[in-house]
Amino acid sequence: MTNTQQQDSVRISEAAHKNHEELFPNHKSTLKVTDPELIEVFDNFAFNEVIAESKLDTKTRVVLILASIIGSQAVSEYRVMVGAALNVGVTPVEIKEILYQSVPYVGMAKAFDFVHATNEVMSSRGIQLPLEGQSTTNPETRYDKGLAIQKAVFGETIDQMYERSPKDQLHIQRFLSANCFGDYYTRNGVDIKVREMITLSILIALGGVESQIKGHIQGNLNIGNGKDILLDLITQLLPWVGYPRTLNALKCLQEVATE
Questions:
Q1: Cβ pair 232, 249 in contact under 8 A
Q2: Is the pTM of this model over 0.70?
Q3: Which region among 1-15, 80-94, 121-135, 155-169 has the lowest average model confidence (pLDDT)?
């Protein structure tokens, strides 16, 4: 079989093609030329089978995938997916909020390249930077507002964390309240239910942070993202983060939801 015949024999289902075109209209895949068998398997799985199991709308699904790609540290794929996100109606502000939300979880050293990649894609689309600010706190209010939203998501667990913390580690608890929650969770642009799903998607992709995954599964449940939504989230991330991280997340979900 010649290369041309092999490319022509790639059997992408109608549903997979439709869903792919929604994200990447008129995209000419170079991998379909060089790796037709891989693209046939992946596209039919990621853009047909997995999506068929979802009740999430396209925009929400792409938001979560974009968050997981940051957690996976896949900058090249992130650039492509930012374009897809814009194509399906994810706003520039929402994309920036996904990225900013990742900073306290992956660290700035890992987020830095994604900031530049985001700016490059947006600039190429004619989006003027900087975007309108979304911060709702200042140095005087960040701790109190952060603590309030922390308790809204996690309840009395936060008081227990402060009470159980060794005195020489209390500054970490204050950092969590003022920085992680006060500086990031209080921002506009993405509501708290979506923000918590974004956080969970990042953590699942990171791997090796099961205690944090369990904590944020509980946080999601506390604010109304039910077990069915979280199972959908985990399912949609599967093609992008792989089976080990997916199975770990499923185990965490089962343990927390059962409790």
A1: no
A2: yes
A3: 1-15
